[in-house]
Amino acid sequence: MVEIYVLRLKGAPEEFHQRNITYANTVHSPSSIIKVDDLEAYQRVQDGAQPIGSEWVSQHSGLVNADDD
Predict the structure, then answer these.
(1) Contact, 52 vs 37, CB < 8 A?
(2) pTM for the full predicted model
(3) Residue 28 DSSP label
(4) How far apart are CA 5 and CA 62, in angstroms?
(5) Which tens digit of pLDDT belongs to each residue from 13-31?
(6) Which of 1, 17, 20, 41 has a CB 3.0–4.6 Å from the CB of 8, allowing a cystine?
């Protein structure tokens, strides 16, 4: 689960606040092309943080190191 919080600075116009909410809902929606990569990174961090996980957290998104051939 990913939670998003939109904060409104004291004195900020309502228009700005509503625009920030719209932006957050757009960027963080399930159909966003941006969120897919973020969720992949979040999942890899969580997987790597597990006590039985490996010593290193891989964030290479499927790329193979030339030394691993």
Answers:
(1) no
(2) 0.49
(3) T
(4) 31
(5) 999 999 999 998 888 777 7
(6) 17
